[in-house]
Amino acid sequence: MPITSSAKKTLRASKRKRVFNVRRSEEMKKVIKKIKHLILEGKKEEALALVPSVQKAIDKAAKRGILKANTAARKKSNIITALKKIS
């Protein structure tokens, strides 16, 4: 446990930030999972409708520092590539 007052304040801030980061991360994972299921089922039109929300979730996670920039770019690229492979 923190002893100094500044360390206590840092712990409080860290707990608050964690809540936001976990929420953002779970939202991103949920949307990615949803679009991957649509891609596997071959539902291209529905998956295409979800692309903007997936990109938005990934970009927000990268902005908050949950994902690194290259990881975010790779995830978006893989999703688009998988969509293009659907006939």
CATH architectural grouping: Up-down Bundle
Our estimate of the beta-strand percent is under 5%
Oligomer description = single chain
Helices and strands: which structural class? mainly alpha
Q: Roughly what is the average pLDDT, rounded to an integer?
A: 94
Q: How far is the N terminus from the C terminus?
A: 56 Å
CATH class: Mainly Alpha
Largest sheet descriptor: none
Spans of at least 5 consecutive residues whose pLDDT stays below 50 are: none
Number of helices: 3
Radius of gyration: 17 Å
CATH topology: Methane Monooxygenase Hydroxylase, Chain G, domain 1
The percent of residues in helical segments reads: over 70%
Count of extended strands: 0
Please tell me about this protein's structure:
The protein is mostly helical and 87 residues long. It has a single domain (5-85), classed as Methane Monooxygenase Hydroxylase, Chain G, domain 1, CATH 1.20.58.110. Helix content is 86%, strand content 0%. The chain has three helices and no strands. It has helices at 5-41, 44-64, 69-85. It is elongated and about 60 Å long. The model has no long low-confidence stretch (mean pLDDT 94).
Which key phrases capture this entry?
0% strand, mainly alpha, single chain, 87 residues, elongated, Methane Monooxygenase Hydroxylase, Chain G, domain 1
